[in-house]
Design a protein that fits this description.
Largest sheet: 7 strands, mixed
Number of domains: 3
Mean pLDDT: 90
Radius of gyration: 24 Å
Distance between the termini: 55 Å
Low-confidence stretches: 361-367, 369-378
Strand content: 15-25%
CATH topology of the largest domain: Phosphoribosyl-aminoimidazole Synthetase, Chain A, domain 2
CATH superfamily of the largest domain: PurM-like C-terminal domain
Length: about 500
């Protein structure tokens, strides 16, 4: 039953704020887990905030609430009446993919399809997809099209750094003169190239895994990962920064290392920026600063991973899009990180359940931001659950020490599409979406496959070690489910409800 409004003195009112349906409510999920452990089933819970306000009438408070006391990207609110809890109402299961007519579209039609579905693919890339399915003699399913968009996104494929550059200007190390040269991609020439030329014996792994690994002692290696989480933090500072920290921690777990420290480099607009100079659609730098710093400390502290270093810059250039550069340091026994799944290995999903969190996050982070981004990209923002990730970390490290998996990766950008697809890139894999544990019913196959719900890892587990892994998962109270199998087919096959909804050549997915 709804709570009765409190008795207030004249001139006072209140504002209730709570999360949208489907946005992760970590506190409510913790409460439900405790109640479930005590045998109380069928209970729903949601959390929110209440602000008591004097001196503003209800209309002015409602006008000022968005982007000051509430964030419309992830929250809704009510003035003078209890807010509606953000429960996700039950929907019927939707284990059917939709065919996307593609083969007959002209360039304008391809561009519009990419824009409408927020694929972040240009016309040339859409032409390549069109040609592939022309050879296949059919149109793609929505699962296949979204899979390719995630795999080819700037976030996952680093197209800017891979693209060739025609350069006219001074040669390297010289300030004057002009030379014409073609650079075969910044990544290949200056990042991979420098690493290969140096060829240091203490570099265990660089460029291609979840995190870099270097030798520390004869018995121990160090893992380090840094990445930006700018776009999500611009929309929802607390959640964006928190999941940025959670993401680099999972990347370190993804090379079988124990996370031991976090570092952050941050950039914000001026905290004293006049309100009339704030770009349309942007949060004020004070709001971004408070949310980002709180999100960083909240995630790391709850996992027991301290923030040991960092830096902060203030500059007008960071007003609309802050810099949130998160890093994590980990330690692992030398030679303890396996990287090759074998035919017949189970695809095992461990950790949090899957919802509509962060769908399209990889393509969203590959797009330019403007004043309406916050209105159309709210589903691309996630809220993390560090307590869940701590349990996952404990399970992964125990499984590593017992040699229970052949390969491991985290579910980050692109969700299962990226994690399972990349792990099986050189082999082949078949996944069964109906086995994926869901936060609530009603998700379509492409949503399950692309969801970027946090705190999830994927392991390649030999059949004879599955029972032991399942036993450890029960001990650490982490959900572990077999959702597929690696097979030597060179294909990415995804089934939903007994029907194939995706069947792609791995070579095209990762090299097309």
């Amino acid at each position: 039953a709804a709570e009765a409004p409190p008795e207030l003195e004249p001139g006072w009112t209140y504002l209730d704020v709570t999360l949208h349906p489907g946005v992760t409510d970590a506190e409510a999920e913790t409460l439900l887990a405790v109640l479930g452990a005590r045998g109380l089933a069928g209970v729903r819970a949601a959390t929110g905030r209440r602000y008591y306000v004097a001196g503003l009438d209800a209309a002015r408070l409602a006008e000022r609430a968005p982007r000051t006391l509430a964030n419309p990207v992830v929250e809704h609110w009510s003035v003078g009446a209890p807010a509606r809890p953000g429960f996700v109402e039950a929907e019927p299961a939707r284990m059917e993919a939709r065919t996307v007519p593609l083969r007959e579209l002209d360039e304008a039609g391809l561009a519009e399809l990419s824009r409408a579905r927020r694929l972040a693919l240009d016309v040339q890339e859409m032409r390549q997809i069109q040609a592939y399915f022309g050879r296949e003699g059919r149109d793609p399913s929505d699962v296949e099209l979204e899979t390719l968009a995630q795999s080819w996104s700037e976030h996952c494929a680093h197209k800017t750094f891979r693209s060739p550059i025609d350069y006219d200007g001074p040669p390297p190390g010289v300030r004057e003169g002009e030379v014409a040269q073609r650079i075969e991609g910044l990544l290949k020439t200056y990042i991979v190239g420098a690493t290969e030329r140096l060829d240091r014996p203490w570099v265990r792994s660089a460029i291609k895994d979840n995190a870099g690994i270097v030798a520390f002692t004869d018995a121990l290696d160090l893992a380090f990962k840094v990445e930006t989480h700018n776009h999500p933090s611009a929309l929802e500072p607390f959640g964006g920064a928190g999941t940025g920290v959670g993401g680099v921690i999972r990347d370190v777990l993804g090379v079988s290392a124990r996370p031991i420290a976090v570092t952050d480099v941050l950039g914000f607009g001026p905290l004293d920026l006049p309100a009339d100079e704030l770009p349309e659609g942007a949060l004020h730098p004070r709001r971004v600063y408070d949310g980002v710093t709180h999100g960083i400390e909240d995630y790391g502290n709850k996992m027991g991973v301290p923030t040991v270093s960092g830096a902060v810059w203030f500059h007008p250039g960071y007003t609309a899009n802050p810099l949130v550069f998160a890093g994590c340091l980990g330690v692992l026994p030398s030679g303890s990180h396996p990287t090759e799944p074998q035919p017949g290995d189970w695809v095992v999903l461990v950790g949090g359940r899957t919802g509509r969190d962060g769908i399209g996050g990889a393509t969203f982070s590959s797009m330019e931001m403007d004043h309406v981004t916050h209105e159309v990209a709210g589903a691309s923002v996630q809220i993390g659950d560090p307590i869940q990730e701590k349990k996952v970390a404990d399970l992964v490290l125990a499984a590593r020490d017992e040699g229970l998996y052949h390969a491991i990766t985290d579910c980050g950008a692109g969700g299962l599409s990226s994690a399972v697809g990349e792990m099986g890139a050189d082999l082949g894999v078949r996944a069964w979406l109906e086995r994926v544990p869901l936060k609530y019913p009603g998700l379509e196959p492409w949503e399950i496959w692309l969801s970027e719900a946090q705190e999830r890892m994927v392991l390649a587990v030999p059949p004879d070690r599955w029972e032991r892994l399942a036993e450890l998962a029960r001990r650490y109270r982490v959900e572990a489910v077999r959702i597929g199998r690696f097979e030597a087919t060179g294909r990415l096959v995804v089934e939903a409800g007994g029907r194939v909804v995706c069947d792609l050549d791995m070579a095209f997915v990762h090299g097309g």
